[in-house]
Design goal:
The first copy, chain A, is mostly helical. Chain A is built from six helices and three strands, in the order ααβααββαα. In chain A, strands 1-3-2 form a three-stranded antiparallel beta sheet. The first copy, chain A, binds a DNA duplex (30 and 30 nucleotides) through helix 4.
Chain lengths: ~150, ~150
DNA sequence: GGAAACTATATAAGTCTCTTATATAAGTTG
DNA sequence: CAACTTATATAAGAGACTTATATAGTTTCC
């Protein structure tokens, strides 16, 4: 408790996090998929195949909702279900190439948007952000470890 | 086009933005309000009273949805509607003390969460983030100017 | 100055995305 | 082997949004 983040303003970091969230959410969606649906795709894209129960644990929705969402994604050809060989009850959900394309498409939009904004920052500002990225990524990593 | 952000990796910044969004969304909600509803409250809290049409412009939903959301918030006592003196058609929506308390409550949760994570960063990591916050805030500001 | 066009919001009905409740099947534990 | 737990599916219902449309006020144009 003596290792106090006295230079880092948590209030400012929180504000930036909130603003980043709103920036992210407000980019217009190309595909008419719900936020949870896109989040599931993103999770599969970055974390590899997962069980329905694992997907449920990572989203703020109920288990039947995840079942429905994955059924929908399967219908659109964005994911593929496969029985889990280690558990007769379970299903492993894999993202398909089409699903990965959806995730990549959105990321490309965000990257283009951020690149445009970043160009209007000063060199010093860009350097400061670049220097902080590994630490910000660590923050996220700590958060993920906390959840899992 | 020669002022290239060669030290700032847009891919990494995008990834952090996406992860921040997911961190933010995944904090369990105390109030059972939709994401859009909370976003409207947040907008009123930080930007002051706004017209329904202004709120519509800032969210990814239709005008009737905003009308319904604001009606709901009014019923909960979280906002207050007031005719716009400069336009007989328009309504100005003000956040109430109860509404501000909802926004502040969520922010406090996020701050507590981030503070806990930040404590587990090294001093150098916290310093790097602190140094980057003004630049990140500028990025957000540039984005807001782009929308308005 | 009045008609046409535009803007702001409200309402109704419908759709989609989620919820709760519950069922079934498979795995684990004692 | 029975009881309990876990994994997922299904059905019905509710909430949050949509589209369609209406009404009222403002602005523009002739």
């Amino acid at each position: 408790m003596s290792s106090q983040a006295h230079e880092l303003s948590i209030a400012q970091l929180t504000a930036v996090m909130e603003d980043f969230t709103r920036m992210s959410i407000r980019l217009p969606a190309v595909h008419r998929l719900s936020f949870t649906t896109l989040s599931v795709l993103h999770t599969l894209s970055s974390g590899g195949p997962k069980r329905l129960s694992e997907l449920t644990a990572g989203e703020q929705v109920t288990q039947p909702a995840i079942t429905q969402i994955v059924r929908n994604l399967e219908r659109y050809g964005l994911v593929r279900r496969q029985p889990d060989p280690s558990d007769g009850r379970a299903v492993l959900v894999h993202i398909t190439a089409a699903g990965a394309a959806v995730v990549d498409g959105r990321r490309a939009e965000r990257m283009a948007h951020l690149a445009e904004l970043a160009e209007r920052l000063t060199r010093a500002e860009r350097d400061a952000i670049a220097a902080a990225l590994p630490a910000l990524a660590r923050l996220v990593e700590l958060n993920e470890r906390r959840i899992d």
